């Protein structure tokens, strides 16, 4: 198995870019002005103080316009959610309290022509998500979006891969970023190729994990499950065996023989992929599992998953408390086959939100991070509307 932690790159840069655009870093200039004024003459300090006061007054004059725009966005999102509740699901693209100016075709294309029943299983409120995303695209104009709150920088939205609530991460204010391994700047080609056919028969392994003892959660997992049943529940450390090409029987390029990677071969043939915390609460295996069409099993305490404002993680993943690691196989075996199929369908549905593109594309990971920042700038929770 190839080393997995050699080039570990979170998407911090993306989030910082988004947060910088939202926040505007208004207080940086103010702080610099204060530092300059503290070392200058009294006359210079007075001039600087007057300039700062004029800037504050100009900001105050601009603020009502920005706040009106934000209030309009909040109202549009609430109307969309309320209209969807009144109609059952109806025409979710409307929600304006009047005839929709968004055609059904556009609404369906937004979610990739998925039917409403599938959307409701995965999204907390499809109508509110659609409207909030459209409002973000309409109004997000860069650093000026912060002028309504001059103190925003002091209470900044933090964008973190290590979204650990036990370490001060606040899901209502901060943004959880998907953690991802980029070995050469791109997703591994084995995960970019189509996943095996839908039937569960194409995935003979119940669950799979391979990795080091990074942190107490992984140590507990390996102590209980390493090597106990490789034929059904393969759990390895760094001793993952090579898989002969002939074993795959389907000609996959990721079969694990010469030049192949057995790690991805196992992942693409497992129903569940174990994603335990390491030194940090997040795991890059979550994104890898989604790309491999494998249901992620998040083994962690205190983890705030990405995009939870929008996505129902219980519709495409399984959460297991660290204390339940000794019962892990039992818990997964209890999940009936129809439920596994529903979870896998959820994985396929949300995969687009965990994709990287150059340049970024609508609804991809970059824009979902931006949308998370946008919701916190609005101070709006979609699940409550």
Summed up, the domain count is 2
SSE string: HHHHHHEEHEHEHHEHEEHHH
Uncertain ranges = 1-40, 89-104, 141-147, 245-251, 253-259
Structural class: alpha/beta
The total strand number stands at 7
Q: Strand order within the widest sheet? A: 4-3-5-6-7
- CATH architecture tag of the largest domain: 3-Layer(aba) Sandwich
**Portion of residues within helices:** 40-55%
As a whole number of angstroms, the C-alpha radius of gyration is 24 Å
Biggest pleated sheet: 5 strands, parallel
Per CATH, what is the topology of the largest domain?
A: Rossmann fold
Q: At the first level of CATH, what is the class of the largest domain?
A: Alpha Beta
Proportion of beta-strand residues: 5-15%
* Averaged pLDDT: 76
List the total number of helices. 14
Query: Shape from CA axes?
Result: globular
Distance between the termini: 47 Å
CATH superfamily of the largest domain: Glycogen Phosphorylase B
Defining traits:
2 domains, 5-stranded parallel β-sheet, two-stranded parallel ribbon, 7 strands, 43% helix, globular, disordered N terminus
Summarize this structure briefly.
This protein has helices at 12-23, 26-38, 42-87, 104-110, 116-122, 126-139, 189-192, 216-225, 245-248, 262-267, 285-291, 328-333, 337-350, 365-378, and strands spanning 159-160, 175-176, 205-210, 235-236, 270-276, 295-299, 318-320. With 385 residues, the protein is an alpha/beta fold. The chain has two domains: 12-26 and 64-180 and 362-384, no CATH class; 189-354, Rossmann fold (3-Layer(aba) Sandwich).
């Amino acid at each position: 198995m190839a080393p997995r932690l050699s080039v570990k790159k979170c998407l911090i840069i993306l989030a910082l870019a988004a947060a910088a655009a939202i926040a505007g870093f208004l207080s940086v200039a103010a702080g610099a002005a204060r530092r300059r004024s503290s070392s200058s003459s009294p006359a210079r300090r007075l001039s600087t103080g007057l300039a700062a006061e004029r800037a504050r007054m100009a900001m105050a004059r601009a603020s009502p316009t920005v706040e009106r725009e934000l209030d309009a966005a909040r109202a549009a999102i609430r109307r969309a959610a309320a209209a969807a509740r009144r109609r059952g699901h109806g025409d979710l693209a409307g929600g304006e309290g009047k005839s929709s100016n968004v055609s059904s075709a556009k609404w369906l294309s937004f979610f990739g022509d998925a039917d409403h029943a599938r959307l409701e299983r995965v999204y907390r409120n499809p109508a509110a998500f659609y409207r909030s995303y459209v409002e973000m695209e309409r109004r997000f104009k860069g650093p000026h979006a912060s002028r309504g709150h001059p103190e925003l920088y002091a209470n900044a939205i933090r964008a973190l891969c290590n979204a650990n609530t036990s370490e001060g991460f606040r899901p209502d204010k901060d943004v959880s970023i998907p953690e991802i391994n980029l070995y050469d700047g791109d997703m591994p080609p084995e995960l970019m190729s189509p996943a095996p056919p839908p039937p569960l028969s194409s995935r003979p392994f119940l669950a799979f994990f391979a990795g080091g003892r990074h942190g107490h959660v992984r140590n507990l997992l390996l102590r209980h499950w390493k090597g106990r049943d490789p034929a059904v529940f393969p759990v390895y450390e760094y001793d993952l065996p090579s898989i002969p090409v002939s074993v795959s029987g389907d000609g996959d390029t990721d079969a694990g023989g010469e030049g192949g990677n057995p790690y991805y071969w196992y992942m693409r043939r497992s129903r569940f992929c174990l994603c335990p915390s390491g030194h940090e609460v997040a795991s890059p295996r979550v994104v890898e599992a989604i790309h491999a069409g494998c249901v992620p099993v998040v083994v962690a305490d205190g983890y705030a998953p990405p995009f939870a404002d929008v996505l129902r993680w219980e519709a495409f993943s399984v959460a297991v408390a660290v204390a339940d690691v000794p019962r892990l196989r039992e818990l997964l075996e209890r999940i009936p086959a129809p439920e596994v199929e529903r979870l896998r369908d959820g994985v396929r549905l949300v995969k687009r939100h965990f994709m990287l593109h150059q340049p970024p594309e609508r609804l991809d990971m970059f824009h979902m991070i931006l949308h998370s920042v946008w919701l916190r700038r609005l101070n709006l929770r979609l699940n409550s509307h």
